Amino acid sequence: TFFLEKLLFTYLRKIDRMPSIMTRFAIGNGLGCCALLAAFFVELAVMAQDKPNTLSIWWQVPQFSLIATAEIFTISTSYEVAFTLAPTALKTVSSACNLIFFSISGLLAGVLFVIFEGWMPDFHADDPKSYKDAHYDYYFLVLAGVCVFGVIGSCLLRPYFRRITSVSKHVV
Questions:
Q1: Which spans are transmembrane here (predicted)?
Q2: According to the model, what pLDDT value does residue 47 have?
Q3: What is the pTM (predicted TM-score) of this model?
Q4: Would you say 21 and 168 are in contact if contact means Cβ atoms under 8 Å apart?
Q5: Looking at the chain, which runs of residues are DSSP E strands?
Q6: Dist CA 72 CA 58 (whole Å)
Q7: Residues ≥6 apart with Cβ < 8 Å to 133
Q8: For residue 115, what is the enclosing H or E element?
Q9: d(CA 40, CA 155)
């Protein structure tokens, strides 16, 4: 957050090159997709091992770095929308709506997990081969598809949101 908000975003605002809100949402979703693709490839590497615990934990650094950066883009931008574009009297309502959307995304992830739980059987430490029938890789691809949908939706909504932003600036 410090790097993005205090350094990068401050610099981009200073030179008048700050990406629009919907562009930042698209970037966040795109980074989320990249994180899930990284997780997909790590899962393929794990599945190629004879023993599941032999792959270095460092293989997971890219996916967690990417998802953390993606969350910074999407979450900080959603709070910016809630607190800067809403009229003063509705800032609390706007913040509550923002939190409801976070809940919906958590619900969606949970529903997808239940739908695809057959791909993800429990791992039993006493039976190291029990992970061979698991397909977390498929689940990561489904979630990456959801992120692609988020990128496309963000891009398609840019003109609409640009209009809303300009109207909001004149009202507030």
A1: 21-42, 62-85, 97-116, 136-157
A2: 86
A3: 0.86
A4: no
A5: none
A6: 22
A7: 121
A8: helix 91-115
A9: 25
In SS3 terms, 108-150 reads as HHHHHHHHCHHHCCCCECCEHHHHHHCCHHHHHHHHHHHHHHH
Give dist(CA 84, CA 98) in Å, integer. 13
Residue 153 carries which side chain, given as an amino acid letter?
Answer: G
pLDDT in tens, 62-85: 999 999 999 989 998 888 888 888
pLDDT at 153 over 90: yes
Q: Which residues, including other chains, have CB under 8 Å from residue 82's CB and lie 6 or more apart?
A: 91, 94, 95, 97, 98
Gyration radius of the chain over CA positions: 20
User: Going by C-beta distance under 8 Å and a sequence separation of 6 or more, which residues neighbour residue 172?
Assistant: 85, 87, 88
| Side-chain-side CA neighbours of residue 158 (13 Å) | 14
Distance CA 145, CA 155 (A): 15
> If pLDDT is split at 50, 70 and 90, which confidence band does 168 have?
low
- 10 Å Cβ neighbour count for 20? 14
**Tokens 């900080």, located at residue:** 76
Q: Which amino acid is at 164?
A: I
